[in-house]
Amino acid sequence: MNYLHKFKFFSLRISIFLFSINLLSQDQQYPKSFNIDKKLPNIIFMIGDGMGLSQITAGTYSNGNNSSLEEMEFVGLSKTHAHNRLVTDSAASGTAMACGEKTFNGVIGIDSKNRKLESILEYCMTKDYNTALIATSSIVHATPASFYANVVSRRKYEDIALQLRFHDINYFVGGGQKHFNGREDKRNLIKEMEGEGYKIVNNLNNFKSSTSKKLGFFTYSDEPPQKSLGRKPSLELIVEATLEKLKDDKKPFFLMVEASQIDWGGHANDLPYIISEFKEFSVAINSAIRFSELDKNTLIVVTADHETGGLAIKKGNLKKSSVSGDFTTIGHSGSMVPVFSYGPYSELFTGIYDNTAIFKKLKNAVNQVN
Ligand code: MG
Ligand code: ZN
Known about the structure:
14 strands, Alkaline Phosphatase, subunit A, binds magnesium ion, alpha/beta, 10-stranded mixed β-sheet, 13 helices, single chain, globular, 37% helix
């Protein structure tokens, strides 16, 4: 090949490359426009526990090379370290994201100087938001608890349950009913809550049909099983039913959704477990995006509290949608995790920042409107 031929070949490759970039940008149509008006934005904050880049990669390739995260316009990176540990647990990182302060591993809603913290959910309440929490673990587990509890140990499930019982969250959905009605102190918090206007239900139909503005849905008495072993109802049905309630009110809302068990798959070094939990999460994220697309005043932020398993993707087959990889730990790793955002004020979430900045950015989004 002489010089001219080489040049022609090279320029052909360049133009194919440019053409494919052009196709991609047409496909995604960024930037999207949202009605940023005088209304306070709704917030859907979605946490994939233990969902690092490798978990997302594995889930995407094994789902026909597709995930709803690809629809989200802005991406940032979050540094997950705890107050005095490089590798965080879900209590410290949940507290960092929910309350904006780094703390010790194991601690929920209390900072390193032993001060009780206000969560973004509670801040939204002061702005007259409706609020909701959804988890595929028990509702007293570290991640959801970071939004309503202040405890020195994440294992104090009975204390955490008691704090939820006295909280004013409008809707909550998750497992762990036994921490409310099978307690060592013999109190029946379900009865206590029902005596004060809460409605507590045990299936999706009753959750949907109830018109109560204070409603709890216990999906399981203990921790819910994994998706592939039959956990029901699906996360997207719960998210859709909850959004249906929230949208019917005149008030703005804050909703936190946790795909809790991506983390448990990581601890088990079980890639199929991670993938099935991720796929369910991806469908639920799609439900949130479809809601935001119509509503035009809903900010969605999707991130993880940390990576679990130190997973690396090593092999796979695109045509067969198969992926395999190796784990380097049965614990968490210290890798940064991605933050995806969509909707009004989503541009606030680009860049590299501490996980505590997520709280500040969410607060900022609420405070854009006076
Ligand atoms: Mg969790
Ligand atoms: Zn974990």
